[in-house]
């Protein structure tokens, strides 16, 4: 299915998976609206790709609403990629970190889904792809509260699909759940144990952000009668 001339809004687009997704969708002739908190990075990326950009802090409800107001009258695709991964142990993690994780990984994602639905075509609907994690399917030893938020993303995605079906809304909802991806987010996830991260890098070849971007393209190009619920992918050498 051709994606040319469709419009996609990508959150967390300034680096890592979001940036790779932006390049991949640009190749398909998609009009891009890039958003994130880092104005300089967004501006540079948007200039290279002849794309629009809107600076927004997704922890602020008013900025999320402003983002969608400025995005225009219609969009076709929402890629919910923005996320944070501070070290947040259940035993002694900072409660403020728990709140940040919930606000960005779950509440902002859900808010973006709500507002995107209002921008989709009323007849054909649109496509929502939530970038989640393998940590939403099993809790790794270092999962902490991050894993709890990714389980919540999985529940939100499924609940949204059921609600849309009940309304006969043609919007398709999908989740991508990667294992270890070599992005700046990984540094924050292992902030309290850099030695473990070094060991991990030696033991396996991690996924590249482009691997996720190619998966996104596959999802978006499937025929309209096909709805992919979730794609789980991990490095071949990753054990859990």
Q: Helical element count?
A: 8
Number of domains: 1
- β-sheet strand percentage: 5-15%
Which second-level CATH architecture applies?
3-Layer(aba) Sandwich
Classified in CATH, the superfamily is NAD(P)-binding Rossmann-like Domain
By secondary-structure content and strand pairing, the structural class works out as alpha/beta
Q: Which geometry do the CA atoms define? A: globular
Radius of gyration: 17 Å
Give the integer mean of the pLDDT values.
Answer: 95
Q: Which regions have little confidence, pLDDT < 50, spanning 5+ residues? A: none
The spatial strand order of the largest sheet comes to 3-2-1-4-5-6-7
Task: Describe this structure in a few short sentences.
With 240 residues, this protein is of the alpha/beta class. It has eight helices and seven strands, in the order βαβαβαβαβαβαααβ.
Can you describe what's shown?
The chain has a seven-stranded parallel beta sheet, with helices on both faces. The longest helix has 23 residues, at 95-117. The mean pLDDT is 95. It has a single domain, classed as NAD(P)-binding Rossmann-like Domain (Rossmann fold), CATH 3.40.50.720. The radius of gyration is 17 Å and the shape is globular. It contains eight helices and seven strands. It has helices spanning 16-27, 39-49, 61-70, 95-117, 144-166, 184-189, 194-203, 209-220; strands at residues 7-10, 31-36, 52-55, 77-80, 127-131, 172-178, 230-233. It is of the alpha/beta class. The chain starts with 6 loop residues before the first strand and ends in a 7-residue tail after the last strand. Helix 5 (144-166) links the parallel strand 5 and strand 6 (172-178).
């Amino acid at each position: 299915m051709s994606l040319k001339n469709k419009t996609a809004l990508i959150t967390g687009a300034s680096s890592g998976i979001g940036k790779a997704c932006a390049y991949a969708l640009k190749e398909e002739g998609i009009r891009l609206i890039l958003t994130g908190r880092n104005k300089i990075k967004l501006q540079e990326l948007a200039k290279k790709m002849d794309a629009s950009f809107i600076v927004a802090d997704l922890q602020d409800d008013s900025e999320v609403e402003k983002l969608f107001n400025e995005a225009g009258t219609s969009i076709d695709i929402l890629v919910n990629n923005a996320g944070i991964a501070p070290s947040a142990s259940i035993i002694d993690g900072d409660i403020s970190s728990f709140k940040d994780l919930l606000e960005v990984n779950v509440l902002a994602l859900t808010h973006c889904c709500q507002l995107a639905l209002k921008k989709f075509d009323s007849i054909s609907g649109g496509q929502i792809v939530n970038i989640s994690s393998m940590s939403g399917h099993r809790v790794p030893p270092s999962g902490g509260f991050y894993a709890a938020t990714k389980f919540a993303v999985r529940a939100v995605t499924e609940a949204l699909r059921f609600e849309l079906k009940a309304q006969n809304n043609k919007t398709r909802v999908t989740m991508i759940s990667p294992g270890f991806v070599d992005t700046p987010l990984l540094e924050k996830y292992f902030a309290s144990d850099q030695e473990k991260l070094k060991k991990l890098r030696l033991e396996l070849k991690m996924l590249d952000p482009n691997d996720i971007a190619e998966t996104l393209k596959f999802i978006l190009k499937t025929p309209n009668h096909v709805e992919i619920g979730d794609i789980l992918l991990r490095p071949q050498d990753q054990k859990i």
